[in-house]
Design a protein that fits this description.
This protein is of the alpha+beta class. It folds into 4 domains: about 110 residues, no CATH class; about 120 residues, no CATH class; about 70 residues, Ubiquitin-like (UB roll) (Roll); about 180 residues, no CATH class. The protein is about 40% helix and about 15% strand. It has 13 helices and 21 strands.
Length: about 550
């Protein structure tokens, strides 16, 4: 191998590593060209791997040409195919390629290639390499074309699926709009039928009135012939009852609501659902046009019977504010009962129950059949006071700070290694009289927690600390057993006064102010012995004549 042969192969465009291996295997330029031609399909890694493997055993025999003594072997001959090789490397490569193993030495020297043969051989090799590259490029182009076709096909399928979904959505939207249009047309037809029925009814009444003024009998209608009013009403009822649902647009004090009910739903059920959502009972419904009012006596009708299908607009009318139901002096005037008077236990006004029996409370000034509408605003902690009354600000401060009562009760009640849990604190309406009063009282509302009447309760002195001498001021219960004095911790007593009102009477305004300054409203509570927890009480201040 010479440097000029290696440079020549590099100039021809062969890989330097391959050219070096080819010159080593071929023993010269001609052998290198033969080796490169035979191994043009192999990569450099494959050639190097074959180099690392041990080659097949070659059996070199004594050929006839080399039988003479003293003659030197100049080539190798494959006895299986007759091909001659210049050196041992070429023979080894041929054996590895063809798995021929029978070789013999020969004294015949392989003639070297002439310059013209070398050039022709190089041109042939270049042509083959060029053709191979062209075939490889054509193969890659064909593969890229197939991949592009697959990609376009997948893209087209995805686009078709998307268009199909959009088309179905458009069809559904068109059907919905068509249904709404049909419902609007049906509603207009029902309105026209109702207007026609009202017109015929007014005409009939006018005819009767005219006949009475003229002193004659009105025109009678044949018994078997249906009146125009009845036919129009029947047409209206048949059209209204043809749908299974009713779409109502409800105008409430909190805004407009759009709801869909079954046509068999009663107006009472609709009123209950609206009351649960807006927080105010519904007294009556009314339609916008034509004007029709549904009182509570009509709440037994279904939406179909009321002609509110398939769609209608209803205006809801709720109760008036509680302050408008009774004079201001009636709200808490009955709570000034003395020791011997009986008054029903105050219940949680935020949980009204339809099943509860009607209440009848005897006030000093009047009798209110049911005080629950008056107490229904208790959850909002409203305070009705005179603007110029001296206790207005302390009262507002008192109820505004009621939420901290539980923490203060836990701090002031000696409960070792126990973190109490508290029931919700009730709130009541407090109203002061416009005039100054010589005597003041605290209203202590006991929470009506579940199972309160079956629990063992103790009233301890520290729970009422700061309220003054009880025997002088007086502590008693309205609507239940009277508590004349508070038992000591050494002599506990059991009481069950859940849901009632304790009245703690003070003797002067200064004493009330002192109690307010001590935050004693947060120290009032009932100790539940069985469950080891504090049930706080709400204190509300009021005046009494």
């Amino acid at each position: 191998m010479t440097t000029s042969d290696l440079d020549l192969l590099k100039e021809m465009g062969f890989d330097p590593a391959k050219a070096e291996i080819a010159l080593k295997k071929g023993g010269g330029l001609q052998g290198a060209l033969n080796w490169l031609e035979e191994n043009q399909d192999k990569s450099l890694e494959e050639i190097q791997a074959e180099e690392a493997k041990p080659g097949p055993a070659i059996t070199v025999g004594q050929g006839a040409e080399s039988s003479g003594a003293g003659q030197q072997a100049r080539s190798l001959v494959c006895n299986e195919c007759g091909k001659r090789f210049r050196n041992h490397d070429q023979a080894t490569f041929h054996a590895a390629k063809t798995e021929h193993t029978d070789f013999s030495e020969s004294t015949e020297e392989i003639a070297p290639l002439t310059e013209e043969e070398k050039k022709a051989r190089l041109e042939e090799l270049r042509r083959k390499i060029k053709e191979k590259k062209a075939a490889q490029a054509a193969k890659e182009a064909e593969e890229a074309k197939r991949n592009e076709q697959i990609r376009l096909k997948n893209t087209k399928e995805a686009q078709d699926l998307k268009e199909e979904l959009q088309r179905k959505e458009q069809i559904r939207e068109a059907q919905r709009k068509k249904q709404e249009k049909l419902e609007d047309l049906e509603a207009k037809r029902r309105i026209k039928a109702r207007i026609e029925a009202d017109r015929l009814e007014r005409k009939r009444r006018d005819e009767e009135a005219r006949a009475l003024r003229e002193g004659r009998l009105p025109n009678t209608v044949q018994p078997n012939a249906p009146s125009p009013t009845a036919s129009a009403a029947a047409a209206f009822a048949s059209s209204g009852s043809s749908t299974a649902t009713a779409r109502l647009r409800l105008q409430t004090k909190n805004g407009n609501l759009v709801k869909t009910y079954p046509s068999e739903t009663t107006l009472f059920e609709v009123a209950q659902s609206i009351e649960a959502e807006v927080g105010a009972p519904v007294e009556k419904f009314s339609t916008t046009f034509p004007r029709k009012v549904f009182e509570k006596v009509d709440f037994g009708q279904t939406l179909a019977e009321a002609g509110l299908t398939p769609s209608a607009v209803l205006v809801t009318l709720s109760l008036k504010p509680p302050s408008a139901l009774a004079p201001a002096s009636l709200i808490l005037s009955g709570l000034g009962a003395t020791r011997n008077e009986r008054s029903p236990a105050l219940r949680d006004p935020s949980i009204p129950s339809i099943a509860d029996p009607p209440l009848s409370v005897h006030y000093r000034s009047a009798i209110v059949p049911d005080p629950r509408p008056i107490l229904s605003v208790a959850s909002h902690a409203l305070i009705y006071t005179s603007k110029h009354h001296p206790m207005t600000r302390p009262l507002r401060t008192l109820l505004a700070r009621t939420n901290s009562a539980c923490t203060t009760v836990a701090r002031n009640c000696s409960v070792p290694s126990f973190k109490p849990r508290f029931a919700p604190i009730h709130r009541t309406i407090v109203r002061t009289m416009a005039t100054d009063a010589p005597k003041f009282e605290w209203l202590v509302v006991v929470p009506d927690f579940p199972g309160a009447h079956e629990k063992r309760l103790e009233v301890r002195p520290q729970h009422f600390a700061g309220l003054g001498p009880f025997k002088e001021s007086g502590v008693y219960q309205m609507g239940g057993a009277v508590l004349n004095d508070v038992p000591t911790s050494d002599d506990p007593k059991d009481f069950s006064f859940a849901g009632s009102t304790l009245v703690v009477q003070a003797t002067s305004r200064e004493e009330i102010k002192e109690i307010l300054r001590k935050d004693v409203y947060a120290q009032v509570g009932v100790w539940d012995v069985e469950n080891a927890q504090i049930w706080p009480l709400l204190c509300a201040f009021r005046t009494q004549k």
